[in-house]
């Protein structure tokens, strides 16, 4: 991915270099999040913290699967790949899917769309 300075201070825009012709995939992320995702080879906890696979320095199938595995071990079942949300089934109860957590997330989403 090519990193481009975003219009907002502290944000960067990532553009996929290997996208198929006619497909321009760009994602804007906070600079700190991109920096955290870029050092995947040095720190597995950092890789598990990466919320968006697009932020990985080396986006390949193996790195994606490794990131999914690390995130699943920490009950982080939601991961973005740009605008796509990947949800993994942990085959056990997960706190982030508890009714109280889901209700809180729905309230936050509703509040942000009302503003």
TrEMBL record:
Keyword annotations from UniProtKB, A to Z: Actin-binding, Motor protein, Myosin
SUPFAM superfamilies reported for this sequence: P-loop containing nucleoside triphosphate hydrolases
Protein's UniProt name: Myosin motor domain-containing protein
Signal peptide (from-to): none
Family, as annotated: Belongs to the TRAFAC class myosin-kinesin ATPase superfamily. Myosin family.
Gene3D superfamilies: Kinesin motor domain
Example of a GO MF term: actin binding
